[in-house]
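User: what does the whole thing look like in 3D?
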Amino acid sequence: MTSSEKSFLAKHFSHVYVEKDALSYPVTIKILENLRSSQIVKIDNYKEVFCRAGQNYSLQEKSKKLILAKKWGEFLYPGPSICHNFGYSNFFYTSNILNCIYRCEYCFLKGMYSSANIVVFVNIEDYFKEIDAVLKNKLLYLSVSYETDLLALEKIVPFSSAWIEYAASKQNLTIEIRTKSTNFQALENLKPQDNVILAWTLSPQEIIQKFEHATPSLSSRLSAIKKAIENNWKVRLCIDPILAIEGWKAIYENFLNQVFKELNPERIVDISVGVFRIPKDYLKRMKKVFANEITSFPYEESENIYTYPKELKEEMINTMLLILGNFVPSSKIFVI
Amino acid sequence: MLKITFKILKAANSNRRSELLMIYIVTAFHAEAKALIKHFGLKKLYEPSKFQIFSGNDILLIESKEGIVKSSIATTFALTKFGAGEKDIALNIGICGAVENAFSKGDVILCNKIINHYSKRTFYPDILIQHSMKEATLESFMHPVKKDSLPLEIEGDIVDMEGAGFFEAASIFLPLHNVHCIKIVYDFLDFEKIDPTEVENLIKQSIPHIENLINALLKLNLKFCNSTSEIDNIPLLVYKLKNSLHLTTYMTNELESLLKDYVIRHKKLPDTIFEFFEVQINSKKEVKNYFDKLRKILLS
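Assistant: Here's the predicted 3D structure for the full assembly of 636 residues, as structure tokens:
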């Protein structure tokens, strides 16, 4: 956003909607301490604000509001088939936070929700209780930053640290915290855990500039990754989604060369690779609000998922595997 | 004093809305409207109507008379009669009573939550722009509320008799970032009689805040909600192609979607599309063939 745009728009989190049931939670108190100048509006249920008809997602992205709520019911959801399970059989995801501070044009969240506002479920202890019950009998691989970027919101909602501290004593649990953020310093004082994987989503700088609005640059993400590695954290790279923009082959080749010039491939746990794919219904919703190169591409549909035409998809994956093969063994690469 | 300058809106009964943005103001009674009419240079509209309506410079002001239902009806009437579009703005402006002494007489308040006391329905406008007003929860009643008969379960910081009716109606037609209630504190639920002159003066004093809000909303809508002229022309193009190629409804809908996507990707129409205006169709098979050809072009 230009400075003239910023000047008349209300800043992010100018308003915080708080469920009456969520008021007394420590996370709520901490968040409101961090946002003293925000307008607080009390509500009965987060859906009153989050699910209103007549919202404009695209405009809300320019001035996101925060909604603090208490989660009831299900805390864990089976990992979807269009996401990697990295070889784990019991793959689940959980959502402490709905929606992300970043504004990536290809993001499935734009098709999943009618609002760009961010919901924080403050009763994180209830999530832990539910997981404890599961861990009594099973191993669990859990993606905790699935519908958001936890690390990007860490200054306001310290959930990444909370998850890492929780996971420290849980031998049956492996968690992945996926991010585009460079906020590694928020975790610097924590002890790296064997069962915690920090997963950075990486894209060529050309893609970041064009489609990943408000996210850190490639070089600053690589710096954050280096710090994480130096501090002995397990690091995964997620090259996902790969986008078929003009000149993609050369762009992605230069990108991967840059990544492995900066990072020692031996210190990377694994790499996930995937082309753009999205559930059919989500794309339909996205197109109503966002008219751009991503939503207007002539995708092919298969089993209610839109993705690139088969031949193009194969070409993209094979190209990536060929280049990656120069740096890492195939056993470290997960393709979807 | 900031002035809002626009072209004068014509053809209030036209079926095709222009690209101009319209501001609809709903007030309960004339004392609330007077200062606004004077300031914005509005003229009385002499169309047969149950309501007093004033217009000028892309502003339409309607006096609903007192009450949730009347406010709802007047809002609906104005927005449908004058063809409100999604970039238009609707404001309910009027006086209110403050439940607590957190406010002062004359405070101008932008409502961030509006409650219908009876149905318990609650409404939340999207406040995406900076503004110079205080904010509060408004609770709307069907009768004047006095301190000595205040309901125990009252949630609002301020009370009135129109806001919830206005908002519920307006939000059916307009997006939530374009519908707002602005209330000016008149009393602390201890009034005996409403003085029209005092009301007029309070509204007059609040005009700078109202104008700032309107300008910010106009900027929001104009800056971020523009489509290209190529996309705007698509419905007409589709209409012509439907007729020349004898397309079915399904084909027409698909054509519109494909055409829109093509224009977004390529920033222009395909050069060859105009050749399809002049074809001769003699059979259903030819319809399908031409449609498939067109489809292939639009998927490239």
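In plain terms: Confidence is low (pLDDT under 50) at residues 1-18 of chain B. The helical segments of chain B are 30-40, 68-81, 163-173, 196-224, 229-232, 234-245, 249-266, 284-298.
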